[in-house]
Amino acid sequence: MNSSRSKALPALGILLTGLASALALWWPMFKTEHSGWGDWQQFHHWWEIGVVSMRRFGEWPLWDPHHCGGVSQWGQPQAQNFSPFYLLTALPFGTTLGHKLYLLIHHAIGWSGAYVVGRKHERCSPAGAFLAATIWTSSGVAAWDGAGGHSTFLAFAWLPWLLFGWREADKDVRYTVLVAAVMTEILLEGGTYPLPFSVIVLAFDTLTRVHRKNVKMVIRTGVVSVFLTLFLAALRWMPIYIAMSRNPRNADDDDAIRFMEIVEMWTARTHDWTWSGHHWVWAEYGSYVGWAALFLAAIGVFAATNDGIRESSLRRQRFTLILGFVVFLAFSMGSHAPYWPFPLIAQRLPGIGNLRVPSRWQVVCTLYLGWLAGVALTRFEGWLNRKRFDRTTEWFKPIAPFVIAMAVSVDIVATGIGVTDRWDGGPVGTGERETPHLINSYNYLGEYANFPSRDVGTMECYDPVPWQRATSLWVGQVPQVRIVDSDTEHPGTSFSVRSEDTVHGYWRTNYTAGADVELITPGRVIFNQNYESQWHASTGTVVSDDMRLAVDLPAGRHRVRVRFEPDDMPYSLIMSGLGVLFCIVVLVIGRRRALA
Questions:
Q1: Which residues contact 510 (CB under 8 A, 6 or more apart)?
Q2: Which of 175, 395, 405, 483 is the least buried, fewest Cβ under 10 Å from its Cβ?
Q3: What confidence score (pLDDT) does residue 492 get?
């Protein structure tokens, strides 16, 4: 029992250190109960949908009736409502505090992953791995993404663990379960950028590591990982694929960044909000690591190529490290020419051609930069241990690498705090509940995080998905159901509202709506929201009326209930269930196999 505890303590220590690193950077957001600024309000809105839906109605948040006139939340690529980490943070703590805890957890996950890979694969010393993990998780990239509300970018925290499982699976096929689980979690966290970025990183890593002796095992890793992921992640990739195929998005980007501008991104502690000659605000470019980290990374490049390594696998790994830094640096520089990596690869691969803002590749580039700095500090530590000093100064040898690591880390974290101290949004989830209706908001971006708790919606649509929407919905506290004559010869069209019919009642939850209506003659009941083909009615026929959800009914009194039932849900859940079984099979029958 004592031996098992001793084995568990190092892992616990790594996680606790990662949590301490997170608190060091993000403590300012706990000074107040304020919500986030920038895009946080959008993600607060999506989180509130789930909090309100599950707490108030006991329903999964499959539909978003609160913006764009009503759209699918099940098919929303950036939805995080189905992640276990959302359920652990949002439901018990609410949206604002839950989001802050969610951010802390992901920082700790990313820090521990970068540390473990640094120690095990890059052969860094503890001080070197500490520095590498801190550079990556506390750099300007992480600070701006976390402070500015790029909530789905927090899924990048899983990237080191993904690399770890991918590499270890060559020796032990059971690690493919870790790969599939991480890929699934990235999708569950709405990782529209982390997922394709990760696929490209894994492809790059494979190409640089594969050789004649391990090609069979590499192929095995890829085949089993893809198979498990396709099944396990079906509950997210299937609805997202359906939603995006019906609402395709094209977003070309020709932004180009010169190398000296990249250096400015790495070293500028402060900067104007706009950057002359570039498309986006500084929050999309700020990648501060500081001159000290850059100096160490440069030494790391030299050390990785000139330390007389005899072990072939480590030589290949150090080559991968240097080349990864160069390749993903080139990605982050954008569209210099058609043959440049960003336009050549990132904008041409199927399914991810709408990636934009090439500077976002700094999230990968700084990961490799951090490991190179860790290699440099490890090399320095080895040199220091070989030197003999006076007995009065010998004590300093074991702590000197940590002193350097802490000095560089303090500089990065102190600069990052100037970014993270920006949680100044209004309260979320405190709005008084109203009768469901659509409103015209004069402060849409400042108010729409509270729409779910208020039970109101809007036709405005701050959403990267170009949803097909009705333009003839009605706003104000007016009846949310109208009865009209239907044109059976021209489906989808209707006539004026009929005054002789009666609406006795209306109600709605997250993914259901209902009306108690009495029709003198056959007619059409129009609900004040967008039409979607996945809505089904308890009676009558669901139709689109000028893109509004409508039901054709015969004469008489009807209590009609419409319900959003995603077409793919039964198949997606079954496939994911099978994925769990396949993962169990791999864990049971898989066995460790030595790498040739």
A1: 49, 52, 53, 57, 59, 60, 61, 62, 63, 65
A2: 395
A3: 52
**14 to 42, 109, 117, 575: CA distances (angstroms):** 33, 10, 12, 35
Q: What is the DSSP letter of 82?
A: T
Q: What is the mean pLDDT of residues 564-591?
A: 94
- Which pLDDT value is given to residue 311? 62
Q: Judge whether 380 lies within some domain.
A: yes
* Under 8 Å between Cβ of 421 and 275: no
Cα separation, 293 vs 577, in Å, equals 45
Helix or strand holding residue 558 (H, E):
strand 556-564
The total number of structural domains in the chain stands at: 2
Classified as helix, coil or strand, 544 is: strand
The whole domain housing 500 covers: 481-565
495 pLDDT higher than 70: no
How far, in Å, CA of 437 to CA of 448, rounded?
Answer: 14
Check residue 592 and give its pLDDT: 60
Q: Which one-letter amino acid corresponds to residue 471?
A: T
For residue 527, what is the domain's CATH number?
2.60.40
Q: Please determine, for residue 7, whether its predicted confidence score (pLDDT) is greater than 60.
A: no
- Verify that 368 and 278 share a domain, yes or no: yes
Record the pTM.
0.92
What would the pLDDT profile of 522-577 be if each residue is shown by its tens digit? Answer: 999 999 999 999 999 999 999 999 999 999 999 999 999 999 999 999 999 999 99
In this structure, is residue 432 part of a structural domain? no
Looking at the structure, tell me whether residues 383 and 505 fall in a common domain: no
Give pLDDT, residue 451.
95
Q: Is residue 437 part of a domain?
A: no
Specify if 575 maps to a domain: no
24 and 106, same structural domain? yes
Burial code (b: 16+ CB inside 10 Å, e: under 16) for 538-565 equals: eebebbbbebbbbbbbeeeebebbbbbe
Cα distance between residue 317 and residue 123, in whole Å: 10
Q: What is the pLDDT of residue 526?
A: 96
DSSP state, 385?
H
Question: What pLDDT is recorded for position 339?
Answer: 77
Last-in-domain residue among 420, 438, 461: 420
